[in-house]
Amino acid sequence: MEKATLTPTENSGHLNALVALLVEKFSPLQVYQYAWATQREQLGSTFLGERRQEEEIFYLLLITEGTACIENEIQQYADSSYKGARAIVHAHAEATLRQNVANTNYYFCSVLNRGQLLYSANGLAGPNMVPMPRPERRLKMAKQHWKHRRAMAMGFLVAAERSIEEGHESVSVFLLYQVAEQVCIGLIWVFMGYKTDVRNLRRLLYVCGCFSKEPLRHFMGTAENEELLSLIIKGYVETRHQDGFMLECSLAYRFLALVEGFLELANGMCQKKFVEMRAALNQVAEQAAIEVVMETAGQNHHKEFIPFI
Question: Which CATH class is domain 135-274?
């Protein structure tokens, strides 16, 4: 059995320890890393002095045996069992991987082609380069998916605002959570081509962190916003499973403004991404046209000259 190693930072000890922990507990077939990031926290206090903390975040794809979905179990185990760094885990059965590769899914094909294989149960390297989806198809699907998710989010947002106005703050918490969730799901599809089943908002925000720091910064950039996010997540869980959760009207309006801003931010990110994808498509088309012209010119230059008689 072989295990490849990856050194994304000067010290990869946390990554190696995380992978070893997950391999021992869940015996995956392969472990890929598709992104890594750092999150810095600075604190200046009369009581503590100046303090700087840096958290490493590793984004992992585990390929597992069988057909059971154990992603949540793996994520919960990683969260509770290792405190030196944060792991964001996707886990899929080998059959799911093969089906998505056959369908040229952007996420899976990108991880196989450009990700780092950290562990292989049989000691073999990963597959050769696999075909990527056609850019035209990817752009079309990304636009369609965002249009759908944005419409869902806007519907929940209107209902949430009405609920606050009518004094149903606990209902608004549930609806605003749905807005943020739909926005995250849409962003993840547009930027990663990945259909996520995750419904944990904090985890969704961290997934977004592998392509932009803006969603995390929006909800966790200040202590006040992060505290509000924690309160809303707690309220969302309680409103689903029990009665009695109460939220001050002022806090409900604060979260409404925060979520409205997030929807606006996400829409701007997606529109910019669509422009970039279209520009890349146009560049490829222009290059292909130039090559055709040059090839045609070359053929004409080499044609045999037959003089008029």
Answer: mainly alpha
φ and ψ at 286, to 5 degrees?
-65, -40
Fold category of 13-120 in CATH: Beta Polymerase; domain 2 (3.30.460)
What's residue 82's pLDDT?
94
Residue from 212, 215, 222, 221 nearest 201 by CA: 215
Structure tokens, 116: 């780092």
What is the arrangement of strands in the sheet containing 49-64, beginning at the earlier edge strand?
Answer: 86-93, 49-64, 30-45, 116-120
pTM as predicted: 0.85
Entry field: residues in the chain: 309
Q: Which two tokens stand for residue 163?
A: 């609920």
User: Mean pLDDT over all residues of the chain?
Assistant: 86
- pLDDT of amino acid 47: 47
What are 12-37's pLDDT values in tens digits?
Answer: 789 999 999 999 999 999 999 999 99
